[in-house]
Amino acid sequence: MNIYISGTPEISMDSINEVVDFLSSINGPINFIPLSPVSKKWTTFRKSEKEKNEDSYIILNDLKQIATVLRIQFTQIEDENLVIVLTSITLNFIEFNSPKKWFSHYNDKDIYIRTYNWSQFTNNRPYLAICHQVLENTLQILNGNIGGKFDYYHNTPEGGCINAFCVNEFEIEYKINSGKICSACQFNLKQNNVQSGYIIQIKNLLSKIAAEANSLDTDLFENRDIKIEINKRGDIYIDGIFLAMDEKPRAFYLFFICSNNNAFTFPDLKSKKDIIIRIYNHIKKNSLERVIYNFFGFDIKSTITIDKSMGKVENVEIVNLEPEILDTEYHRRMRNIRNLIKTDLSTISTLVSTNLFEVKKAGRQGMAPKYLFSYPKELIQIDNSFLQLINRTS
What we know:
Shape: globular
Distance between the termini: 45 Å
Number of strands: 15
Helix content: 25-40%
C-alpha cells in the first residue's frame, strides 16, 4: 500500500520530507511517498470570528477538495492508496463539529492532519506527533472504521493505546510516549483481517516514535568531545567503539565524513561516484562495483572480443540507464542510505543521540535537496593512507 503525503501551500517540502523520512525508516508493506504542496489556488482562506489569535482558517471542504485535486493531478495514486494533507491553518471549528480538539480527521481514504502546536509535547520534535497521527488514522482506515465517528475509540486515554480517545494535546502526548496498540485493539484488527505486515510495521514505528520522544536532550547531555576515527582499512570507530555497517552505506558514510562540512546534491554525488566506488572496492573484497553504479542510475556492460595478439579482451562500457530519473527517486535512494546509517549509529551504546553523527539534509540548491555531514574537524582522525585513496585523481 502507498501513502502519499502533501500539504497546503504554507507547508514546506522539507517538512513533508521530514515526516516521510521518519515513517520510511522502518521497512514494511506500507510505502510513504512525498508530494509537493498544493498551489494556493486550491485553498480558500476565510477570516475567523471565533479564532481571535489566527489570521485565517480553512474549512473541511477545502481539505477534501485538495485531496481530490491531488488524486487527479498525480495519476499514479490508485483508489486504494491513502492521501494525506498536512496543514498549519486553523480549521473551522463550527463546521468541524467534534467533542474534542482538532488533531486530524479522515474521510474515506483521505487524511487531514494539523502541524502546529506540537513542539512542547514531543521534546521539540513536532514531526513525531504528525507521524503518530498518520499512523493512528491509517490504522483506523485499515480496520474499516468510519471517519468522524468515535465508537471504536477507548473512552479514556488510560493505557496509552493508539485508539484512546483524547480531548487535548496532553492526552495525545501520553499516547505518543506509550507507543502502544492494546491487546483488545490487536484482537479487533485480527478479527477484521488486517494484514499482519501492516500492523507490525505500524507498531514498530510507534515504538520508534515513543523512544525518540523519550530520549535525552542532546544539547544538555552530549557535551563530551567524542572522536570519530577511520583506520587504513576504512573501519569506523565512534567513541572508541567499532561501527558495524554493510559496505554500501559504509562507503557513503566514509565519503561524507571525509568530505566533512561540504554539502552535496544528488547530482553532486553522482559526479563523485568514482571516489565512492574506490571506497567501496577498498572496504569490500571481491566487490561488485555495479552496486554503486546502479545506485546512481548506471550499469556496467561488458563484452568479450578475441584479439590475435592479446587473446580474449574484455571491453567495459558504463551505460546510463536512467537519464531522466525523477527527483523523488533520487530523494528516496538517499533517504534509504541515510536511514541505514542512522540505524547502524544507534548501535553505539555510549551515544545519547545519533543526531550529531548523521548525514542530514541541509537546505536546497534550486529544487534539489543538499546532504551534509558536519562535525568538529579536530575530533575526526583519518588514516593518511585512507585519505590518499579519497584524494587520488585516477
